[in-house]
């Protein structure tokens, strides 16, 4: 599953995901969210992608 799909499907409150930059294995994204941005950040930080933690 793509990272953008993972965020959209598994993080409550995410309305839209837009990729701004991808370089050297790091991605910068903009999120449009409903509700509490701190809760969204906590949910994203709890995700694992290919067994690796996500830094927010």
Oligomer: single chain
Q: State the end-to-end distance.
A: 19 Å
Strand content: 35-45%
Number of helices, counting only DSSP H or I runs of 4 residues or more:
2
Overall pLDDT confidence: 90
Helix content class: 25-40%
Q: How many E strands?
A: 4
Q: What is the approximate shape?
A: globular
Structural class: alpha+beta
Number of domains: 1
The radius of gyration is 11 Å
**Poorly predicted runs of 5 or more residues:** none
Biggest sheet, spatial arrangement of strands: 1-2
Characterize the main sheet.
Answer: 2 strands, antiparallel
Q: In sequence order, what are the helices and strands, one letter per element?
A: HEEHEE
Topology:
Blueprint: H1 3-10, E1 14-23, E2 26-33, H2 37-45, E3 48-49, E4 52-53
